[in-house]
Amino acid sequence: MEAGVIYADVFFLINFIIDFLCLYITRALVSAQSPLWRITVSAAFGGFYALAWAFMPGIPPWALIPSHIAAAWLMTYIMIGGRRFGRVCAACGVFCLSAALVGGALGAAFSLTGGGYVVSGGVYADISPLFLLGTAAFSVGACYVYGVYARRRISARSAVAVICAGGAEYRARLFVDTGFHVLDPLTGELVMIVSARVFGEKPPRAARIIPFSTAAGSRVLYGFKPQSCAVNGVPVQAVVAISGRDEYYRGCDGLVPPLLVFDANGKESGVC
Asked: Under a CB-based contact definition with an 8 Å cutoff, are residues 16 and 22 in contact?
């Protein structure tokens, strides 16, 4: 196929939209708490990267895959903004898979318009602005519906904890884990795990050692006894264990055992 005329602004916009959709899907699948501005910056980086490749002639085939993987990793790192190398690599794999699926679906749709050309190893089709906007609107709508569905599922299996310590009040959304039943070795009280990011730059002094075991192995966290604690508005007695800032629990800020989750009548909830 012969190369046609490429308009830089349109080329950037197409890649920006597709990258944004793939990053949005990746954020939902890996339960990352990435704000939209990070996704936007990452998608813009992807658009400029694609634009740079399109106007670089004579690119050897062996350089395509390593460069694309490196760019995908950087885009994922920009979106997550964390410091955990393993988490970024896992999210990068999800992003590459979603990009392959979305790119294949859009490529099939674009091929129906007829005509196309190859630029820097990529196949592009001549599409009308109306077709592009319609495809983008449908994709964004599908992502939005999935996002609402995912948030409702998370809300149905989570609880809001209000923790008072050191004269400050902290709020956290905790995932209700039926397999999580850790006890404080000193008092025998139930333990809830809360990410350090909930407490800001100066978390409460953690003077308690809380060991526990999971399927992934044994861990030790440091915790504290809060001045007061409420779960879904009902006061409870619990010890708070502080985990890393970059740790997420199915989109929530931590874990809470079912026995600490109460309904409005003060009875144990049936959340599972």
From this structure: no
